[in-house]
Amino acid sequence: MKFITAALGYFAWKTWVSRFKIMFHRMAGINIGKHVILGKNTLVWSSKNRKECRIGDCTHIECDVIVRGDSYFRIGKGSYIGAGSYIDLTAPVIIEDRVAIGNNLTIMSHDMSYKWRGLGDMIAESVVIKKGTWIGVNVTILAGSTIGEGCIIGAGSIVKGNLEPYGLYVGILAKRIKDLPHGDTYKKEQAR
């Protein structure tokens, strides 16, 4: 009986802490939907475009996730971001509905290699992750990347550029190794 009481107390405390964090982020001007969970030590911060930052309904952002920069961030409904992830907002980052992201994701929306080598200015380009995508642990997504709808990105991959929809991508730089079923094709395969 003591265990059940302690467990219920823990979950009540965790819910209260999550509600406090959501209230803090809302006061900072970030638009947060219903039934959102923000884990311990999670920070979503845009120094210039807070009103443009949106977190959709039923989204779960695990502990130790940092989302920060000068641009805006949008995450759709029913998405999940794993623990220890870092999202750079030098340029906009858009994550659509029902995207699942594993632990330790890194999204870099800028590239300073040209500036460091004296070849020009820093490059800042948006990152877009389309709906229904699954991203494995320890994936890095570089500036200017667009991941198509329904993709799966293997663990430890580095993504640069545009990935076509409904594909399995792995490697450094991620390459398509398999087509994934979708829509009518998926229904026909399930009927077999």
Write a structural description.
The chain has helices at residues 2-27, 113-116, 183-191, and strands spanning 31-32, 37-38, 43-46, 54-55, 60-61, 66-69, 73-75, 80-81, 86-89, 93-95, 100-101, 106-107, 110-111, 123-124, 127-129, 134-135, 140-141, 146-147, 152-153, 158-159, 162-163, 167-170, 175-179. With 192 residues, the protein is an alpha/beta fold. It has one domain (2-191): Hexapeptide repeat proteins (UDP N-Acetylglucosamine Acyltransferase, domain 1, 3 Solenoid), CATH 2.160.10.10. The protein has an 8-stranded mixed sheet. It has a 7-stranded parallel sheet with strand order 1-4-7-10-15-18-21, with helices on one face. The protein has a 6-stranded parallel sheet with strand order 3-6-9-12-17-20, with no helix packed on it. The termini are far apart.
CATH architecture: 3 Solenoid
- Give the C-alpha Rg: 18 Å
First-last Cα distance: 49 Å
CATH topology: UDP N-Acetylglucosamine Acyltransferase, domain 1
CATH class: Mainly Beta
Integer average pLDDT: 82
Tell the overall outline: globular
Number of strands: 23
Strand composition percent: 25-35%
Poorly predicted sequence stretches spanning 5 or more consecutive residues: 1-17
Largest sheet: 8 strands, mixed
From the helix content, strand content and strand pairing, which structural class follows? alpha/beta
Number of helices: 3
CATH H level, superfamily name: Hexapeptide repeat proteins
Instruction: Please write the string of helix (H) and strand (E) elements.
Output: HEEEEEEEEEEEEEHEEEEEEEEEEH
Strand order of the largest sheet: 2-5-8-11-16-19-22-23
